Amino acid sequence: MPKSQVRKKKVYTPPTDIRPAAAAAASKKPSPILLPITAVTLIVVGIAWLVVYYLSSQKWPVESWSYWNLAVGFGCMVASLGILSRWR
């Protein structure tokens, strides 16, 4: 019994005039040095805000804000995470 022919698939080559992967890779620049410095500063400020709030028996940094002081401290830390997501 004769053997059937095996079709050879052509190797796909993308068009040379359109290369989105190469264009995207070329457009990514390294992050400015200020970005990680800002993120670390926000983390430290957030932790310091919470520590001062608890150690002062909820009198400092702003007594009239009461539990909103927690939102400020955690908000600083979450903002730093958002900034760090942009870091390359």
Automatic annotation (TrEMBL):
<comment type="function">
    <text>Involved in cell division.</text>
</comment>
<feature type="transmembrane region" description="Helical">
    <location>
        <begin position="33"/>
        <end position="55"/>
    </location>
</feature>
<keyword id="KW-1003">Cell membrane</keyword>
<keyword id="KW-1133">Transmembrane helix</keyword>
<dbReference type="Pfam" id="PF06781">
    <property type="entry name" value="CrgA"/>
</dbReference>
<dbReference type="GO" id="GO:0005886">
    <property type="term" value="C:plasma membrane"/>
</dbReference>
<keyword id="KW-0132">Cell division</keyword>
<keyword id="KW-0131">Cell cycle</keyword>
<keyword id="KW-0472">Membrane</keyword>
<feature type="transmembrane region" description="Helical">
    <location>
        <begin position="67"/>
        <end position="84"/>
    </location>
</feature>
<protein>
    <recommendedName>
        <fullName>Cell division protein CrgA</fullName>
    </recommendedName>
</protein>
<keyword id="KW-0812">Transmembrane</keyword>
<dbReference type="GO" id="GO:0051301">
    <property type="term" value="P:cell division"/>
</dbReference>
<comment type="similarity">
    <text>Belongs to the CrgA family.</text>
</comment>
<dbReference type="InterPro" id="IPR009619">
    <property type="entry name" value="CrgA"/>
</dbReference>
